[in-house]
Amino acid sequence: LPYVPHVPPMALLGKVTATTFTLERPRCVFDGHADASDAVWLAVAFANASAAFRNPLSRADVPPYKQLPTARSYMTLETAAAAYSCSAPSPPVLRVGADTACRDQGRQDPCNGPLPSPGPYRVKFLLMGCRGPKAETRWSEPILLHSAVSPSTIDPAPTRRGSAVVVIASILASLGAVLATAVLGAVGAKVWGSLCHQDLGTNAFIRRSYRTHHIPPALPLPPGCGCSPPGLCRCAPQPPAPCQRI
């Protein structure tokens, strides 16, 4: 069949990882070739071993996942052919290597286990019936997985190229601190000056002399007046003033 399996072009989380990759699910590819009892398999092989892959003649001859390191290929994702028809409400993608629980399972239960190395790998879909293969797609282009970085190769010390960035960041931080200090000082001086003006107005009011105007001043007692005992006042009789001739 002319169909070529491929990684979907749209952005997907974990589309390609160190042990898995995602394939676009083929639809309408096997219509007209498949019966209700047929199954579709995915053949996975190292890119340099795909030319030597031979289609199994029956399900019993399907190469299992656990023989990948030696046989350089295996088959997985056995699915009823009806799931790939045009009318099937199936997920748009398939994930190869997603099943971490089937590492030790036998060949009678196909395993979709994690891929052991970055590859690259090639894949193709194979339609199989009761009497063997019936149709197949072309091999995909090589699919390379991500490589994990060894912890021993990571340099914990910062590189020298980042020293200039550190110096610039330090200068900017110092300028920011100086600017913040200047702003706070200006605001504080303004607040302190307003408080001083308020204090001066209050003190001037307190120090201003205040003279009562509703209480008349005390009149001096006439001569000969005194208080004895205290609280009783009396005045001695005064001789009449001498007459003056006018």
Automatic annotation (TrEMBL):
Transmembrane segments: 164-187
Domain of life: Eukaryota
Keywords: Membrane, Transmembrane, Transmembrane helix
InterPro entries found in the cross-reference section: Uroplakin-3 (IPR024831)
A GO cellular component annotation in the UniProt record: membrane
PANTHER family to which the protein is assigned, alphabetical: UROPLAKIN III (PTHR15446), UROPLAKIN-3B (PTHR15446:SF15)
Protein name per its UniProtKB record: UPK3B protein
The species this protein was found in: Promerops cafer
